[in-house]
Amino acid sequence: MSGCGEPAVIERVAAADERGLWTLMILSLLMAFASISTDIYLPAMPTMGAALHARPGTVELTISGYLIGFSLGQLFWGPLSDRIGRRLPIALGMVLFIVGAAGCAFSNSVEVMVAWRAVQAIGACAGVTLARAIVRDLYSGARAAQMMSTLMIVTAIAPLLGPSVGGLVLQVASWRTIFEVLVVVGLVTLGLLATLPETLPASQRVREPLARVFGTYAMLLRQPRLLGYLGVGGFLYGGIFAYVAGTPFAYITYHHVAARHYGILFALGSIGIMAMNFFNVRLVGRLGSDRLMRIGAVGAGVMGLWVALAAWTDWGGLAGLVVPLFLYISCTGLIAANAITGALNLFPEVAGSVSALIGATQFGTGILGSAFVGSFADGTPRPLGSCMALFGVTCTLSAVLLVRPGAGRNA
After folding, report:
1. Which residue has the higher pLDDT, 398 or 56?
2. What integer pLDDT is reported at residue 335 of this predicted model?
3. Who's near 354: CB < 8 A, 6+ residues apart?
4. CA triplet 125, 66, 192: central angle to 5 degrees?
């Protein structure tokens, strides 16, 4: 598990810069699969529920099922990639994604769809997890944070377009066609993987038996500073997935927004993420990634409380809900890249495992957020507001209490 020498680092970074735009495009596409797989069918959720004769609140379980598969799957792909490299696990994951998407297209009940969504997620998470590890293979420090933010600027286009594309598909075809589109996207991505270079040389791979490699998690989970980074990103994403699960019904059902217009409101968050990631790229070298992350975390806490106030009082109507939701989601641009980079920089020798823990935490809290909104659905935005306040405040507390300036890695 020893690190590589300086010449090897320079050689890999030079290769990355030479093919930077193409590699960046592929990594962005891989990281976008988390959004692509869910955002594109959000406008179809009410239609799906009616077509599958689902009980109120059960369609949201297709998101929860996806998050369970996404969260647990990362814990497998991360250590596997530390041992055998990045490319093969990504390709295997893409095959599972394609199979899962096809299964969703032919589902005849919500229960069956939840199962296929889990399969789809286990496959999709391989690319997301290992794209982060690939960035850490090639870069470190502020440069890694800049590259991670650049990736997130590009991947923010997926949620920007996803709901709109799903709404357009619904105008000309059924909701099943949306999942058929995902099959095609998976096949195209699988073909592009042939051009992705392997970034983890054999000399740097973990040589211990795979069963022992999984024991790395026990060591990592004893590191308070790492837990702080995991908490900041994880609790943020709990609120984000409450937003994903709750806004179709808060906007379309409660505030009577047309399904074709829902994508426009949803896209506002992506615009905010791109804008804040742009500022993060410009400022991280001067202010530091931890400071910017804490600023974003405090913002998420304040915005979460504002969402709850608007949801419970109906203050401001639709606009009163949209504005704080937009600002909460925008905070992702200051939090996600910096929290991920901070965690990866603590243990670069097992970047795959750390990346897996990052993703598992994010999507694990996402399970709680989406399940909370579905379980307490009452036809109002109140469950959404309460959930986002809870996760926003805990995000703030993680940044303030656990990621303190000057604290280092524990032995």
Report:
1. 398
2. 93
3. 78, 220, 226, 343, 344, 346, 347
4. 35
pTM confidence score: 0.71
> What would the pLDDT profile of 267-296 be if each residue is shown by its tens digit?
788 788 888 988 888 888 888 889 999 999
Residues 93, 196 contacting (CB under 8 angstroms): no
Task: For residues 332 and 150, give the distance between their C-alpha atoms in angstroms, rounded to a whole number.
Answer: 13
Contact 359, 74 (CB under 8 A): yes
Per-residue model confidence as pLDDT tens digits over 341-372: 889 888 888 888 888 898 888 878 888 888 88
